[in-house]
Amino acid sequence: MSGLTYLSRMNLSYNNLSGKIPTGNQFDTYDASVYIGNIDLCGFPLPSICTGNTSNQGTHGNSNYRDLDLAMAIGFVINLWWIFCVMLFKKSWRSAYFMFVDELHEKIYVIVAVRCAILKRKFGKK
């Protein structure tokens, strides 16, 4: 919920919520009246200060991002190794790849050389 950015009104009163109120985006704009009746809530804008590790929201939210980062890293490494293994064992694919890279390098070199020549001519340098 802390990712919401276009929420104009919210009333979470008397819902038996507990833990630390998230901060950021819209949550920083609400006053304490939004959370009336939730005696186990703490943090801004309520006067009760969170002590210790009573916040399930904070640890749960961060672990989702850590899990996503870990999954992305594992997927990247597995796919990279798959590509390297295919290149290692398939000589025709390896040759095609390096020919493509070589042709791309030549095209980029020509484009850069032509642009440099145009700029030199434009600014009068010889």
UniProtKB/TrEMBL annotation:
By its UniProt entry, which InterPro entries does this protein fall under?
LRR_dom_sf, RLP23-like
Where is this protein localized, as stated in its record? Membrane
Record GO cellular component, one term: membrane
Q: How does it sit in the membrane?
A: Single-pass type I membrane protein
Can the keyword Transmembrane helix be found in this entry's annotation? yes
Entry's transmembrane regions: 70-89
Keywords of this protein's UniProt record, alphabetized? Glycoprotein, Membrane, Signal, Transmembrane, Transmembrane helix
UniProt protein name? Non-specific serine/threonine protein kinase
Organism placement in taxonomy = Eukaryota, Viridiplantae, Streptophyta, Embryophyta, Tracheophyta
